[in-house]
Amino acid sequence: MIRLANVSHDYGGRGLLKNIDLHIAPGAFHFLTGPSGAGKSTLLKLCYGELRPNDGDVELFGQPLSALSRDALADTRRRIGVIHQDCQFLDHLSLAENVALPFVATGRQVPEADLRELLAWVGLAGQADSLPPTLSGGERQRAALARAVIMSPEVVLADEPTGNVDPEMSQRLLSLLVELNRMGTAVMIATHDLPLIRSAKTMVSARVLRIVDQGLQSAGS
Ligand code: ADP
Ligand code: ADP
């Protein structure tokens, strides 16, 4: 679904990512690890078309990124759910409104029952009307997960989803992502939370990819 071939990217100056090959297939569960600053967030951005690589080819659902117009890219990105590191909520909108935003952006109303079901799934049914600044770290991450999946994406990309939450909440988030994967959604999680990876391996056949010396190594599955 998402394929990077011989992709290199940096922001000017020293190199960052070099000759990366990556394929996220339907139903895959990948972890992306590597030291802070190795380029994990950058690699995720390349995977959802937020960044165009300096070199190499990115293919999203069979279409070369380089050939996608702005509008076509916007459509394609609805097939990819993204959980941003900082969640990126609009603080003046309620949790439910924030979760519904991707839907509203397509000009349609999200069916009320679907929204309720989704909030219940992430355990936030009681917080639908809360404003984001009043939520705890774990609640924000679960709301970000709900927003990422409201369009029923084929793949979910998560950037350090457990960065600001306690181990119990990390486990809960992981369980939701595993459940999503069992229903057929591909998942890639950028993290340096090693206990999280160990725990995931008891639940799902996960592949661990590591950025080492600007390249991508497979640490097995
Ligand atoms: P990671 O997610 O592994 O911590 P990032 O992809 O966030 O790594 O960042 C990799 C490197 O690229 C870091 O040194 C970071 O400072 C730099 N970087 C990230 N985004 C930008 C940007 N927009 N402009 C310039 N440098 C950037
Ligand atoms: P955690 O320990 O998981 O970080 P918090 O102690 O931050 O949780 O929050 C616990 C509860 O209090 C949550 O339900 C959250 O929504 C609520 N809460 C936190 N901050 C505020 C606030 N400023 N106003 C209203 N409710 C809040």
Automatic annotation (TrEMBL):
Q: Which Gene3D superfamilies match?
A: P-loop containing nucleotide triphosphate hydrolases
Q: GO cellular-component terms in the record? A: plasma membrane
Q: Does the keyword Manganese apply?
A: no
One Pfam family of this protein, by short name?
ABC_tran
**MF (Gene Ontology):** ATP binding; ATP hydrolysis activity; transmembrane transporter activity
Q: Which residues form the ABC transporter domain?
A: 2-221
Any single GO BP term:
cell division
Q: Which UniProt keywords apply?
A: ATP-binding, Cell cycle, Cell division, Nucleotide-binding
List the SMART domains hit by this protein, alphabetically: AAA
- The protein in question is named Cell division protein FtsE
Name the species this protein comes from. Answer: Pararhodobacter marinus
